[in-house]
TrEMBL record:
<dbReference type="GO" id="GO:0015074">
    <property type="term" value="P:DNA integration"/>
</dbReference>
<dbReference type="InterPro" id="IPR039537">
    <property type="entry name" value="Retrotran_Ty1/copia-like"/>
</dbReference>
<dbReference type="InterPro" id="IPR001584">
    <property type="entry name" value="Integrase_cat-core"/>
</dbReference>
<protein>
    <recommendedName>
        <fullName>Integrase catalytic domain-containing protein</fullName>
    </recommendedName>
</protein>
<dbReference type="GO" id="GO:0003676">
    <property type="term" value="F:nucleic acid binding"/>
</dbReference>
<feature type="domain" description="Integrase catalytic">
    <location>
        <begin position="102"/>
        <end position="185"/>
    </location>
</feature>
<dbReference type="InterPro" id="IPR036397">
    <property type="entry name" value="RNaseH_sf"/>
</dbReference>
<dbReference type="InterPro" id="IPR012337">
    <property type="entry name" value="RNaseH-like_sf"/>
</dbReference>
<dbReference type="Pfam" id="PF13976">
    <property type="entry name" value="gag_pre-integrs"/>
</dbReference>
<dbReference type="InterPro" id="IPR025724">
    <property type="entry name" value="GAG-pre-integrase_dom"/>
</dbReference>
Length: 185
């Protein structure tokens, strides 16, 4: 703004922005600049809804650009529950199917009483596995392997370059989703 020839004056009453004879005043600095309170919720959203542990890791390793903004922020577990509730609602609306099972790695993100009550209220069976052991998450790990194998076989059989890997994975996932299966009966 100063480069455009404007004068900016901050005082105890607010902000005055002036150019020549034109004046813009505000009595509330926060409203004038739409200042957002910096909290974990904001950073949780900015970082793609990462979990508490990943946020702490990024903070401890000083991998976040605005480190001075996050030094006093304490992460909360509640937000990921909101993400799960949002996911359940959108999935049920989009696919017109009810979520029946919820698998969690027992890492603590989804262990609150509120989350347990939500699952009970929605009729969702809540399953916990051993923390940080993806090899024990048999169903999801097997599905990842199935998708990978389908994508690989499509790429090889069509003599396509590996740059089409993403498209092959999306196609494999689509094919799995539309193929009838005994597991969903």
């Amino acid at each position: 703004m100063q480069a455009a020839g404007m004068t900016i004056i901050f005082n105890e009453r607010g902000v005055v922005v002036q150019k020549g004879v034109g004046i813009c005043k505000t009595e509330n600095i926060d409203r004038a600049f739409n200042v957002t309170k910096v909290n974990y919720s904001l950073w949780h959203q900015r970082l793609g809804h990462i979990g508490k542990q990943k946020f702490i890791e990024l903070k401890n390793k000083q991998m976040i650009y605005d480190l001075d903004q996050i030094c006093n922020i304490n992460p909360s577990d509640d937000l990921c529950e909101a993400c799960i509730k949002d996911f359940v609602a959108k999935s049920e609306a989009h696919f017109d199917l009810k979520v029946v099972n919820l698998y969690s790695d027992n890492g603590g993100e989804y262990l609150s009483n509120e989350m347990k009550d939500y699952c009970c209220e929605k009729g969702i069976t809540y399953h916990l596995t051993v923390p940080r052991t993806p090899q024990l998450n048999g169903v999801s790990e097997r599905m990842v392997r199935t998708i990978t194998e389908k994508a690989r076989s499509m790429i090889i059989s069509a003599c396509m370059d590996k740059i089409f890997w993403g498209d092959a994975v999306l196609t494999a996932t689509y094919l799995i989703n539309i193929t009838p299966t005994g597991a969903l009966k």
